[in-house]
Specification:
The structure holds 2 protein chains of 2 kinds. Chain A contains 9 helices and 5 strands; from the N terminus they run E-H-E-H-E-H-E-H-E-H-H-H-H-H. By secondary structure, chain A is an alpha/beta fold. In chain A, helix 6 packs across helix 8 and helix 7 packs across helix 8. Chain A is elongated and about 75 Å long. Chain B is α+β, with helices and mostly antiparallel strands. Chain B has 4 domains: 180 residues, Beta-Lactamase (2-Layer Sandwich); 103 residues, Beta-Lactamase, CATH 3.30.450.20; 78 residues, Signal transduction histidine kinase, dimerisation/phosphotransfer (DHp) domain (Helix Hairpins, Orthogonal Bundle), CATH 1.10.287; 147 residues, Histidine kinase-like ATPase, C-terminal domain (Heat Shock Protein 90). The chains are: A alpha/beta, B alpha+beta. At the A-B interface, helix 1 of A face helix 11 and helix 12 of B.
């Protein structure tokens, strides 16, 4: 289930059905869940898209469900559906990292915009995540010596200084350098620095 | 009661000892007096003894001398041996006089016995020789030689007893004629010569030179050891001694009785003094206990937080405790002796207080206490709870009234505050419940509405795209219809809920309901110094209505009016309730003198949740209107002719039973 899709969680069947119909007319894939428990039982970490979550539900409430998701480290954007009186609750959920909230009855345009925005964000996040993952994979190809050398390169030191520090010849440093660039598939030290920005290793 | 008797010592220290000292002195003096009297007594006894003894001695001497003189007179005649009858008579006289002479013997110049008197009864040589042997010729010679009477020593007589002799010479012109001898019996001398009173008082004994008692005149009586007097018995001399001993002085009854009574009285005095001391001690102890008790009671009264006030039967204050003084702010001096009206009575309640006062004095005061309004000296108002009870003194007489007064101002204020808070709380609770209900209702209705609008958005999307599938859209529209029904069902449920409070109709008179409703408000109105004026048209037809609901409506309108006039000055706070009949309708008008309602507000007046009051729910007028409508009536508003607001309730007289 790697296709991004909107997960609608609401205990009111009519709302679920109506939202599904609306999204269908907008060609946005969606899945519906009758309760938070059912959704949490089924969810896998690689699911993409967003979650539309009713705050007021029988059984587990939307807020509880949100907390469980975050506790599991799931970063799927969550959009809350609120009734008239639940706005303060929704605001506090926003502060805790929910993506947005929409009030019932829904304004068609707003709802779609919010959902689309959430899905874009999720997609971006996933992309960034996969890029980081690729870098990490490439980093594992480096030998210990190459890493050492790479660290010094990232510090902006010249080959000569690196050779002196590691007590090796300039030529060896140059050999390491070209191998590092090759393994990390970059052409310059600047590119390497950009690639490794935000990656911990 | 403010000046408590301080326990002062009854007398200085030394003064309390004075009676003891006086008593000791008294006893001492009595003792001294007794002793002095006794000494004086002894002294006088001794004096009388001595004078008696001297008298006796003199009397004895005189007797002996007289006898000697008489013998000397008749001596010459006796010596002749010729005794004239005259002389004989004198001799007999001498012997008969019982002056101790037992016998008279006369001798011639040569010492031969011429004769004797009385003669020996049986003159025998023996007897004569006895006499002869007895008479000491030396004495006769000595007497003849010196020419004066000579006394001889005492000797034991032949017949018992003791005798002594006196030899008296008789001379003629030519010389010694003879000697007359008087024989004295010592016993007889003592017996005859001592008068009876003397022997009554004294024991007289004669002792020889060796101190042996020869004879004694004595009665059987104990002898005094102290009063003895010994003197030489001379004549006859020869070491004879007279010893005079006083008998134990007879008891002097009068002084003795006097003494005894003095002693007795002293003892009684001592005893009573002791008793008095005991009594005093007991009294002091009792007094100290009483003082302690008094102090304790006073402390109790003073530390009591309840005010105490005693009044006599005429209502005059006779006692107040400090707590009461603190309560009303007057001092005890200011209060005691006052008669009603009391200065601490609240001027606005004087009539009622006087009434209560009179009731209490008549013995009909409420047993459960009575709440009154008082005013402190500083002008503060004060609520008090008073309990009155008859004051009965120790002898069971009803002397007045005892009142205990409790300051309940704070308590009352707290109670009032609590009531207000309670009301506010209830209002809040109602508000919360209503909010809760509204919220639930909103959520419930939101669900189908949200579904409908969403389905609708989807349909619009399809239509916009131009690829609308009729079947699909029909399906969706059926769903939309279902949601619309769902919403309708919710509304229906709410309606059903509301219908549960349908009016219970009965025939009622509108005026009665107005009266009841305004009575409910009367207390509150009085408190807020507002006036509710009724103008009720007589003879109005009855209504078929729920009296509780109508009453609720009127109470609501009047209360609104009261709230409206509360900002007005005193005297301008009037709510007027008018009833009338017009074209088959009963009209109830509630007019106030408040500031009126501006048109903007007037427009929203009957909107639910609209309120001009801070704590209002905005439901009052809404409910009123609902009630009016339930009775097929109308509730409307207009401005009063002189400002203020007028609410008009119009109710049809012939109300059909409401159909569901």
């Amino acid at each position: 289930m790697n296709i991004p899709c909107v997960h609608i969680i609401d205990d009111d069947e009519a709302i679920r059905d109506a939202l599904q119909w609306l999204l269908k007319t907008r060609k946005i894939p969606c899945t519906t869940w009758a309760s938070a428990e059912a959704f949490l039982d089924a969810i896998a970490p690689d699911w993409a898209g967003c979650v539309v979550l009713d705050i007021r539900m029988e059984g587990m409430s939307g807020l509880e469900c949100f907390d469980v998701l975050r506790a599991r480290g799931n970063t799927l954007p969550v959009i809350f559906i609120t009734g008239h009186g639940d706005v303060p609750m929704a605001v506090s959920a926003l502060k805790n990292g929910a993506h947005d909230f929409i009030e019932k009855p829904f304004n068609d345009g707003d709802l779609i915009a919010v959902i689309q925005h959430a899905m874009e964000i999720d997609a971006e996040r996933r992309q960034a995540q996969s890029a980081t993952q690729a870098v990490s994979e490439r980093l594992t190809l480096l030998t210990a010596r190459e890493r050492e050398v790479m660290n010094l390169i990232l510090e902006g030191k010249y080959n000569k200084v690196i050779a002196d520090e590691l007590n090796i010849s300039m030529r060896t440093v140059e050999a390491h350098r070209s191998r590092i660039f090759e393994k990390m598939s970059v052409r310059s030290a600047v590119e390497l620095a950009q690639l490794l920005k935000g990656v911990t290793f | 009661m403010d000046t408590s008797p301080q326990p002062t010592p009854l007398a200085p220290h030394w003064a309390s000892r004075l009676p003891y000292a006086a008593l000791a002195l008294f006893v001492l003096l009595i003792g001294a007096l007794l002793w002095l009297t006794r000494v004086h007594d002894e002294d006088s006894q001794r004096h009388s003894l001595i004078s008696d003894v001297l008298w006796m001695e003199q009397s004895l001497q005189f007797q002996l001398d007289r006898n000697a003189a008489q013998l000397a007179q008749i001596g010459p005649e006796l010596a002749t041996g010729e005794i004239s009858p005259q002389t004989d008579a004198r001799l007999r006289q001498l012997l008969r006089a019982h002056n101790g002479l037992t016998r008279i013997v006369w001798l011639d110049a040569h010492g031969n016995i011429l004769n004797m008197m009385p003669p020996l009864s049986e003159p025998s040589p023996d007897a004569t020789s006895t006499i002869q042997a007895v008479i000491d010729p030396d004495l006769s010679r000595l007497a003849g030689t010196i020419g004066r009477p000579v006394y001889g020593p005492v000797y034991a007589a032949a017949g018992g007893g003791h005798q002594f002799e006196v030899h008296i010479p008789a001379f003629s012109d030519s010389g010694l004629l003879g000697v007359s001898i008087g024989v004295y019996s010592v016993e007889a001398l003592l017996a005859r010569e001592l008068p009876w009173w003397f022997t009554e008082k004294y024991r007289v004994s004669v002792m020889d030179s060796e101190g042996n008692e020869i004879t004694a005149r004595s009665r059987v009586a104990p002898l005094s050891s102290t009063h003895t007097y010994t003197m030489p018995f001379d004549p006859p001399g020869h070491g004879l001694m007279l010893q005079i001993t006083a008998y134990e002085g007879e008891i002097h009854w009068i002084p003795a009785i006097l003494m005894t009574s003095i002693l007795l009285l002293a003892a009684v005095l001592l005893w009573s003094f002791w008793q008095l001391r005991l009594q005093l001690k007991r009294r002091l102890a009792a007094e100290s206990a009483l003082r302690g008790e008094m102090a304790f009671r006073k402390a109790m009264e003073d530390s009591l937080l309840t005010g105490l006030r005693a009044r006599d039967l005429t209502g005059r204050i006779t006692y107040v405790n400090p707590a009461f003084c603190n309560m009303v702010g007057f001092t005890a001096q200011e209060l005691i002796g006052l008669r009603p009206p009391m200065p601490y009575w609240h001027p606005d309640h004087i009539e009622r207080l006087q009434e209560i006062h009179d009731l209490i004095l008549a013995g009909q005061g409420p047993r459960t206490g009575v709440e009154v309004k008082l005013r402190r000296k500083n002008g503060e108002e004060m609520d008090a709870l008073i309990f009155e009870a008859p004051l009965i003194d120790a002898s069971g007489r009803h002397t007045g009234w005892m009142g205990s007064i409790m300051d309940i101002t704070e308590r009352k204020r707290a109670r009032e505050l609590a009531r207000q808070q309670d009301e506010r709380l209830q209002a809040t609770a109602r508000l919360i419940t209503m909010g809760e209900m509204a919220s639930t209702l909103a959520h419930e209705l939101n669900q189908p509405l949200a579904a409908i609008s969403t389905y609708n958005s989807g349909c619009l999307n399809r239509l916009a795209e131009g690829d609308a599938d009729i079947e699909e859209l029909r399906d969706i529209h059926e769903k939309i219809a279902r949601q619309a029904y769902r919403a309708a069902a919710i509304i229906h449920r709410v309606h059903d809920f509301v219908r549960r409070s349908e009016p219970k109709r009965e025939r009622v008179a509108l005026n009665d309901i107005v009266r009841e409703a305004t009575e409910l408000m009367a207390a509150d109105a009085r408190k807020r110094q507002m006036r509710i004026v009724l103008h009720l048209a007589p003879g109005l037809p009855t209504l078929a209505a729920d009296p509780v609901m109508i009453e609720q409506l009127i109470v609501n309108l009047v209360r609104n009016g009261m709230d409206a006039v509360s900002s007005r000055p005193l005297g301008k706070r009037v709510i007027t309730v008018t009833t009338s009949e017009k074209a088959g309708n009963l009209i109830l008008r509630v007019a106030d003198t408040g500031p009126g309602i501006d048109p903007e507000r007037a427009r929203r007046l009957f909107e639910p949740f609209f309120s001009t009051k801070e704590e209002g729910m905005g439901m009052g007028l809404n409910i009123c209107r609902s009630i009016a409508e339930l009775h097929r009536g109308r509730l409307s508003f207009e401005d009063g002719p002189d400002g203020g607001a007028v609410f008009i309730l119009t109710l049809p007289v012939e109300t059909e039973p409401a159909t569901a």
